[in-house]
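Journal club side-thread
Mid-discussion, someone asked how the predicted structure for our own chain would compare to the paper's figures. Pasting it here so we can look after the session.
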Amino acid sequence: MRYALIGCGRISTNHIYAALENHLEIAAVCDIVPEHMEQLLEKHNLNRDSRIKRYTDYKKMISENDLELISIATESGSHAGIALDCIEKGIHVIIEKPMAMSLEDADRIIELSERTGVKVSACHQNRFNTAVQEMRRALEAGRFGKLSHGSVHVRWNRNEEYYRQAPWRGTWEQDGGALMNQCIHGIDLLRWMMGDEIEEVYGVTRQRFHDYLEAEDVGMAVVQFKNGAVATIEGTTNVYPKNLEETLYLFGEEGTVKLGGKSTNNIDIWEFADERETDAANQRLQEEAANVYGNGHARLFADMAGAMREDRQPYVDARAGRRALELVLAIYKSQKEKIPVKLPLRNFACEEMREEF
């Protein structure tokens, strides 16, 4: 399977690793900074592979090569435009989160991909964490019973050095704030677990320690689901002095689960009324991860390759990516208007938050 990567920054090493793990043929890489491509390829001992073409113009790359799969790992504000160009060429796409910065662009991706039959996967790789998969299996088996409530906490640190590495970080046009960038994985998991269909969201965001940014560094929200359950969201990059945790709680009439670790990669609490032999192993489950991005990229790539071979939807498709984006944007809209926001949300964009702080 001929694969190419667009964007060779911070997350790109996970994409190349995933491509290698899945035995994809890496045909090309693209970045506007040539040194970024060379550093990435050298890290994976690919810098001397003359078969891998280098491009600084992704449009030239997709025109000159017969590619089957591309992953997009550029700054968030360019995701949608690049994805649409790739879909137009008939190339299947994995889009790093968030899939777009506006619901209008997300809908354009969904419409074009469904009309052309091109597969699109939103890169919410934490859905493939072992702990997350165990929670999902228990949920689908009905072990929680009636859901009461849930919560997600993303308590991380991003200092000035991180934000100064790239001028687009923390801008409304290209990135958004802590909720859109760092916390959207946890937000995706919370919505996925609790029923997807949301009635109303009330959110509050602030910029407390990063006054050189445009966007928020802390956000909180209360979410009312149509099934009657409620949830809370806490996301921040203000934790001193380093990343603390990403936790996901789910409380049901007959079960309680807490996923913990740096990226919901461990099971901290696993209690159910209908005890099973497998529960003992889950009560001690810890999945080692090299960083907060976890181990899910390789699994997401494997699923995408399977979706292409089997002509099915990816496990995390474009509509899933839109739902995560919609919830973040609903929190932003609530902050902007100072009122609860009803869902579904039709049109809202990150840029509408300009000068909020």
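Post-session note: The mean pLDDT is 97.
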